[in-house]
Amino acid sequence: MNPRPNILLIMTDQQRHDAVGYVNPEVQTPHLNQLAQESVLFTNAYTTNPSCIPARAAIFTGKYPSQCGVPTYMTYLPKHEVTFMKRLQEAGYYTAVIGKQHFWKSEIDKGYDYLEIIDEHFPPRRIHKEVDPSRFGLPSNSTVLDSASSYICFLADSGFTEGSQLFEKVPSTKEVYRWKADERYHVDAFVGDRGVAWIRNQRPVGKPWFLTLSFPGPHTPFDGIGLPDEALYEQVEISLPSTAPEDIFQKPPHFRHLLKRYCELDETAQAIRSRMSDAEIRLMRKSYYANVSLIDRKIGAVIEALKECGDYENTLILFLSDHGDFLGDFGMAQKMQCLSEVLMRIPFLIKPPIQGFRGYQENSFVSSVEVAATCLATAGCEVPPDISRRSLTQFFNQTEAPVRWDEIYMEARDIRGIRVGQYKLAYYAEREYGELYDLASDPEERVNLWFDGQFQEIKHRLMTRLLDKLIQLGHNMHVIWHPDTPPI
């Protein structure tokens, strides 16, 4: 690995682990497929949390959501936390961000020299006063609006002040929208184009740089219908989920509340009166996949720009999403407070800054909380003792033997989960119920074994492993009790 390589962190929002072509051939992502050939492809990568704000807080700090004070969607990083971007900045890196971040109300020093944060998907209802366009690196004749991102300003300059000018809901569907405007006005096209422009015109020369390029899609609204990429799926019969809405009757009660948005439940008979039709689920997935394909094209353009400027070989590229989406599984869409595989497993690959690196698949467990240590180790920075300290550089740095995990830990406010081998447990605080699955025989989590008498020993074993993990995650637990005290 070359000294002081550049680092490019590419993120998407709400992209399932199987919404990439190298996992699911129905999804057209040729550029990510090629990048995977030159990368360590993590086939068992998990997020820390099924919601945007806590999942991203864990990535930025290297701490699990409960450790950094962001356990829910309605929380945000306290000022005393330190992002790994700030540590890179202090180590001499020029740091930049273009796209979604979801710091929400946090006043933390984000650690960026250049900020172009774009958390929106469409114009707000009200436009505020103008400010200096140089704040966004835009030309002096651009309209820039207070409390608005460069994307909103770009739309305003182009005459778009309402989301209805850009897309419209497809009738008789719950989540599907049709894109009406030119592709260049789509938020993911804009983020990708701004990324290309930054690499070509704004990246520092003679100094290592870090860039977060974060696409707001394919998060709802599922607005891929109408994009040019929809044509890629015209001749494809998109697969339906193998799960069924009735499966949620084996799950904790709050699953039913989300399902009621899409179905009518007869809880006494444990039956579903109506649901999203197969045609609607296929259309929803088509819209979602078309958005993914747009993002893939823009990632390809960014990689091409890196190659043109000669920085590709000396740039570490990470690609991942913050969490997944039900996308029709169990008759639902979007996300909720639970640890279902379709929400927790994410696409994750790392292209090392090594010329001619031959990619391979790594099947052991990795977590998005390890992004921080990985970026810091790549930059030659010390990894603080109070964050998740394993760096994924070990999977391509031949000077060290990889330390592989046989378990993966997850959170969702008062839910704690662990997967050990083929078994996965979700513990619900102060509840008698929970979730336990054998993913070898039931990868879709249709059969909850929590109360099954034949699996109580396995449940006890996973509960013990979970308790061990919770103790390990305590603050300063790396410090010994006393130098003169015998170990327990």
TrEMBL record:
This is Sulfatase-like hydrolase/transferase. Gene3D superfamilies: Alkaline Phosphatase, subunit A. Belongs to the sulfatase family. Residues 5-380 form the Sulfatase N-terminal domain. Keywords: Hydrolase, Transferase. It holds the Pfam family Sulfatase. The keyword Transferase applies. GO terms for molecular function: arylsulfatase activity; transferase activity. The lineage of its organism: Bacteria, Bacillati, Chloroflexota, Caldilineae, Caldilineales. The keyword Cell membrane does not apply. It comes from the Bacteria.
